[in-house]
Amino acid sequence: FSVLKTAVEMNFQPDTIWIGVDAWSNAYPRDMDEFMSLFPADAHPGYLGITPYLNKNDDKSNFLPTLQEAQNRDGKMPWPELPHHSAVQMVDSILALVMALVATPPGDRRDGNVVMSRLLDLDLDGVGGRVRFTPNGDREDPRYSLFNFRRASEGDHATWVNIGQTGSEIGSAEIDLTEFCFADVGCRLDSAPSDSYPVPEPRLAVWIPAVIGVIAALLVGATFSYIRVARKKKQMASQMTEMQKKIEAVKNIDNDLDDINKVVDDAKRQQASLIMKRAALQGGVPSTWVDSPDTLVPVTPEDEEYWAVFEKMRETIPDVHISKLWRVQNKSLWSYYSFHRDRLEMNNIQPNERRVWHGTSVLDPSIVYADKMDGFMMQFAAQGLWGRGIYFADKASYSKNYSHKPTKFQTSDRPAPTESELEMFLTRLLVGKETKLNQNRALTVPPIDSKTGLKYNSVTGNTAGSQVWIVYENGRAYPEYLVRYYVGNRDESRSPYESKKEARKSRRWSSCSFELDASTSNTSSSNLQASAPNLGARQGSWEFLSETGWVAYDAINNALIEKTFQAYSVAATAPSIVVIKGPRWEYEVDVANMKQRNIQHPDSTERQIHFRSI
Asked: b/e map of 398-425 (b: 16 or more CB within 10 Å)?
């Protein structure tokens, strides 16, 4: 609103009519206090604004609620207010054209002259007022709304007030003078001021401005230093006060965040416990999972899992390197996926589970792996070569073209990426009974098997050198791994090992065996297995001494410790130390000295261990 401020500062003609204020006639200047200080106390700006007319009758007052209801129903963002003049004119034009077409016989609707004659016959009440057209196609007798910019009742602010409407002809204005406030005369007049209003101020004598200028210059020269110092002190005091307020506000926010974080941590632990119990009742989770409240669990280059995924990826992308690998441990999503696998088996259909690749393109992968209901959803599916479905590929090189490019501004639980990194999923897919089809963009569901009378579960085909599978329902795929990768020369800071052989030399290498079967399988357990070493003939478990007493290790770590102990018992030259992973830290377990040491904690905490026989 700098134009209004400039007008006041230049002593511009009051009660001026401002044309085309559609975007600002119903709003306020940004610096209201500063703007109103330019006027004498109790005086009104008195400006008159004119904007295209918006119908306010009962029929059209429901336009915005009806539009918002339709937008909510279609899943679109609803408009918070009625559109500007251009959209209003478009609505009226579309409405007029539809009514003209309805009045035109179907056989004449391609004849422009016939349709034009129907448009000229129209006379309707539109969103922007009465809709009629001249022979030249212009809006006949367009209407405009009038606004008065005046001081509000509280005295410190100004507002635009609707005072009536007008047409384009002289004498067509309908103004409520009781709502009009003139700059120098006031409000609620019985009639408008005369044409000579406002009365020009009398001209001053030529010598008066000169004398005033000299006096003003002297005053400015005498008080300039004082004003500058006083203003600077005032600004500094204001800045100090504002800074103290901000510091105090930040402290309060930090305290609130600490409280919230504690509540969130407690809720996460409780949630993880409940979901684990629920998943156990529904058949358990993959044996590779570890006890963790997080959905994304890092898989390090010291794990067999890491290299199994890496080698599968390198089958079709020879120069790829993995910078981050996460195992997705979403218990709710796994239960839903297991339900679909059981449903296929109950109908005597082999699940035909495959490991396939999927890129989410512009969709953040967290929308999939953090979802507690469906994971891969048809709501986000795009139209493809085999219709609107969820697409998965046998070759990573194909899904690479649809990889997600993460940004440092993402709000998920993944760290910020480098510029060249991309992400895609390695996914478990329940193919079920499939049918191979040529490309058909009209598909919305798989076709029916003529032998059984039932729909196929999946559609498959070949494109861009890769076999692809398409499913048309939720719950048929589980995002097993999220892979962040880059292509080109290896960066040691992101990919520390050139090969698995080199990684095996690390003292943190996990001896837990792992197999990633890329072939087709009819069961969910044969593709991915993490087998614990055999405990031999001994019955019992390894335990460590905590502050509350002896605590047993989980099954995987128990097996690793026992395997190390058995090997050391046979040959004293065998390693007596094994590195295991807990929910939060990594530990070095020494079966020769019966001690456990935290190798990640700054204090390197040590605890006693023993084997409790059953």
From this structure: bbbebbbebeeeeeeebeebeeebbbbb
Three-state SS for 580? strand
The amino acid at residue 579 is V
**Sign of the C-alpha dihedral computed for residues 470, 471, 474 and 475 taken in this order:** negative
Bridge partners of 160? Answer: 149
Q: Are strands 129-131 and 124-126 parallel, antiparallel or unpaired?
A: antiparallel
pLDDT per position as a tens digit, 287-322: 889 888 889 999 999 888 899 999 999 999 999 999
For residue 404, what is the DSSP state? Answer: B
Cβ partners under 8 Å of residue 589, min gap 6: 561, 564, 577, 578, 579, 580, 595, 596, 609
Cα–Cα nearest to 478, from 309, 328, 313:
328
SS3 state of residue 377: coil
The residue type at 410: Q
At position 558, the amino acid (one-letter code) is: N
* Res. 530: pLDDT tops 50: no
Per-residue model confidence as pLDDT tens digits over 332-382: 999 999 999 998 998 889 999 999 999 999 999 999 999 988 899 988 888
* Contacts of residue 286, Cβ cutoff 8 Å, sequence gap at least 6: 334, 528, 530
Reported in sequence order, the residue ranges of 2-128 that DSSP labels E, i.e. its strands, are: 17-19, 47-52, 124-126
Residue 448: partners with Cβ closer than 8 Å, 6 or more residues away: 454, 455, 456
Angstrom distance (rounded) from CA 397 to CA 538? 48
C-alpha to C-alpha distance for 54 and 22, rounded to whole angstroms: 11
404 close to 320: Cβ distance less than 8 angstroms = no
Helix or strand or coil: residue 586? strand
Distance CA 396, CA 313 (A): 6
Distance CA 476, CA 456 (A): 13
C-beta neighbour count of 120 within 10 angstroms: 14
